[in-house]
């Protein structure tokens, strides 16, 4: 992927030296949907960074000023539907509340709609993840559905899956384009 720059951020492919930064927010994910990619050690982080460095699906988000990895955004193309991407973000809690997620997501959306000819973007958000739900709305995405007991990321003490309610948000290219002219 070509490097994207915003006022405060650089979005680029992952590199080997991102392992420590990735470990900082994935050793104890703050959102349950990322529990499946929890990193148990810095060695696991190095392996994950190596894997991500070979793909354009996960994009490192770094502060322009310091170069620090503050999070990532992702865009996974649908295998059977050209121009459709599942998107999302995951940021280090130490850097949340500074507008980095919205700044990075806006750059990602522009890249996907203009550079990758995306037709539709969608995101799944657990209904307990209020910051991501607010971000989807701030980005102009519309709520398309609310799935009850949709997915389980963890089990209770008896090993029974704990199902979460999940919302789907989406944005079409034409909707995004009309936002750009408003």
Question: Main attributes?
Answer:
alpha+beta, 5 helices, 182 residues, globular, 8-stranded mixed sheet
Can you walk through the features of this model?
The protein is α+β, with helices and mostly antiparallel strands. It has helices spanning 19-26, 42-53, 100-115, 130-138, 173-181; strands at 4-5, 9-12, 58-63, 69-77, 84-91, 120-126, 142-155, 161-172. An eight-stranded mixed beta sheet has the order 1-2-3-4-5-6-8-7, with helices on both faces. Strand 3 and strand 4 (69-77) form a beta hairpin. Helix 1 crosses helix 2. The longest helix is centred in the middle third of the chain and has 16 residues, at 100-115. The mean pLDDT is 92.
Summarize the structure.
This protein is α+β, with helices and mostly antiparallel strands and 182 residues long. It has helices spanning 19-26, 42-53, 100-115, 130-138, 173-181, and strands spanning 4-5, 9-12, 58-63, 69-77, 84-91, 120-126, 142-155, 161-172.
Strand-helix topology:
Layout: E1 4-5, E2 9-12, H1 19-26, H2 42-53, E3 58-63, E4 69-77, E5 84-91, H3 100-115, E6 120-126, H4 130-138, E7 142-155, E8 161-172, H5 173-181
Parallel strand pairs: 5-6
Antiparallel strand pairs: 1-2, 2-3, 3-4, 4-5, 6-8, 7-8
